[in-house]
Amino acid sequence: MKIAVIGTGYVGLVTGTCFAEVGIDVVCIDIDKSKIENLKKGILPIFEPGLQEMVQKNHNDGRLNFSSSLNESIKDCDVAFIAVGTPPGEDGSADLKYVLAVATEIGQNMNAYGVVVTKSTVPVGTSLKVKHAIQNALNKRGSNLKFDVASNPEFLKEGAAIDDFLKPDRIVVGIESETAEEIMRKLYKPFLLNGHPIIFMDIPSAEMTKYAANAMLATKISFMNDIANLCEIMGADVNHVRKGIGSDPRIGNKFIYPGIGYGGSCFPKDVKALAKTAHEHGYKMQILEAVESVNDFQKSVLFNKIKKRFGTLKGKHFAMWGLAFKPKTDDMREAPSLVIIEKLLAEGATVSAYDPVAAHEAQKILGNTITYATSKYEALNEADALLIVTEWPEFRSPKFDEMGLRLKNKCIIDGRNIYEPQEMMDHGFSYDCIGRAGV
């Protein structure tokens, strides 16, 4: 079996590489020629643990190839995955121009029956638009080639994407024919040997499943952040509350960690897009709109704590540990750090930040408006306080004595609750966190 994956961003590159890992011939296609040339050299556009090594191995073994030419690469493919970006428009809706442009190009170049699969996160009804775009292109060619479309949403966690793909907790596929189901089942057979379920359904349901999953997880995060803020007001400890409700199997202990809001490529975009889709059909998603509102507020919570503690911030200097929206990724999309930095700079403060992998991505957005430290300790020099924004493992057990010597004030404002207040008191730090009494 031969497949094509169009788009070499996060989803496309992980998808193509993992299919190649199980022995399938894969060509990954992107219009960015420099990106393709870099991939051939083993230079990746994203950071994901273990991905670079897997790309290099499968490329060297001849199973994973890269091309900037869709018209050549799409020929003789059994399955073509569309994995290009669907950036949010100004109104929150998903922009489908890249998806539909690829669909049209597939229709212009396909030369045999194949299944065209939307892997990108797309609103309900997109696969029908993809089908029409392909058919229109075929009609203009005077071609009577047959094809099927399918929806195969991804459920990858940044930082754990390879395991999520190779050992999926479920595979969701929306199909419209028995032929497409047979091909997709054959394609995913190597991933089903350990009992991982593949769930076939109609295409609109598959498209909705992706949005519903992300919206549910985002709701848990915003709900817990709301509870954390109330805990601070009432004198309760959100860590105790989290453990108390997380032991209920109906709720579970995942995605109930309070913090400074969710970010990344999925949750913000998908919550907006689902609410927008509902609005277009005359329905108001009241809970999701509240989820988004809580998340917007939560991204300012750390700044509000800084403002409360220091008052005027002009001339103050802050160290920041973490820039990416979460650990094990260099993804800066919708990262809370960007909101915090923007507010600090607007108040006349300066920032020195350290992140193990995301500094280069942050610099593309922030330029030289902040200082990028080469180590976590370097970032602390003469800072009025340390702000913890991303919970990288290397921040969990630092040398507190060295931290105290480098900081101008022994003050930590922790947006991820990685330390215990009593421990910080014992080390002589003033400490503030989320949903718990500070010291």
Task: List the topology elements.
Blueprint: E1 2-6, H1 10-21, E2 25-29, H2 33-40, H3 51-60, E3 64-67, H4 70-73, E4 79-82, H5 97-109, E5 115-118, H6 126-141, E6 148-151, H7 161-166, E7 171-174, H8 178-188, E8 198-201, H9 203-234, H10 238-246, H11 267-280, H12 286-298, H13 301-310, E9 317-321, H14 336-346, E10 350-354, H15 359-366, E11 371-372, E12 385-388, H16 400-406, E13 411-414, H17 421-426, E14 430-432
Parallel strand pairs: 1-2, 1-4, 2-3, 4-5, 5-6, 7-8, 9-10, 9-12, 10-11, 12-13, 13-14
Helix pairs in contact: 1-3, 5-6, 9-11, 9-12, 11-12
Walk across the major sheet and give the strand order: 3-2-1-4-5-6
Label the CATH architecture of the largest domain. Answer: 3-Layer(aba) Sandwich
The percentage of residues in β strands lies in 5-15%
Give me the oligomer status: single chain
Main beta sheet, described? 6 strands, parallel
Residue runs with pLDDT of under 50 for 5 or more positions: none
Say what the CATH topology of the largest domain is.
Rossmann fold
CATH superfamily of the largest domain: NAD(P)-binding Rossmann-like Domain
What's the total number of strands? 14
User: Alpha-carbon distance between the termini?
Assistant: 61 Å
Helix proportion: 40-55%
What does this entry show, briefly?
The protein has about 450 residues and is an alpha/beta fold. The protein has 17 helices and 14 strands.
